[in-house]
Design goal:
There is one protein chain. By secondary structure, the protein is mostly helical. About 60% of the residues lie in helices and about 0% in strands. Helix 2 packs across helix 3.
Length: about 110
């Protein structure tokens, strides 16, 4: 079974009338995976489909939505897997030397 057959069968199982451009989805998923986050491809594909359904988008409109998502992914300012600023590791020495007030205490 190839991807196109899978999409047809999945649409039948989900009881939806939909056409999917698997090439477009695979390309977009790959770009977001590489530029944003390993899971971004799955999430982006889902949200693209959600947006298309909510807007009643025809195939041309889906391509325009996908192009907007791709442009965002290609301009993403953090490489895939890079921690967000708030997730960066703090050196142990910085924690040990920090001045904590009593209200900061967990005990």
């Amino acid at each position: 079974m190839n991807l196109h057959d899978w999409i047809d069968e999945l649409c039948d199982v989900l009881d939806i009338e939909a056409e999917a451009d698997e090439g477009l989805l695979v390309d977009l998923a790959g770009i977001t995976h590489e530029n944003v986050h390993p899971a971004a491809g799955f999430v982006t594909s889902f949200l693209l489909g959600f947006a298309a359904g909510e807007q009643g988008a025809d195939p041309d409109a889906v391509e325009r939505l996908a192009a907007r998502a791709q442009a965002l992914a290609e301009s993403w300012d953090r490489p895939a897997g890079a921690p967000a600023a708030e997730d960066e590791d703090v050196d142990f020495e910085e924690l040990a030397d920090a001045d904590y007030a009593d209200e900061d205490s967990l005990v």
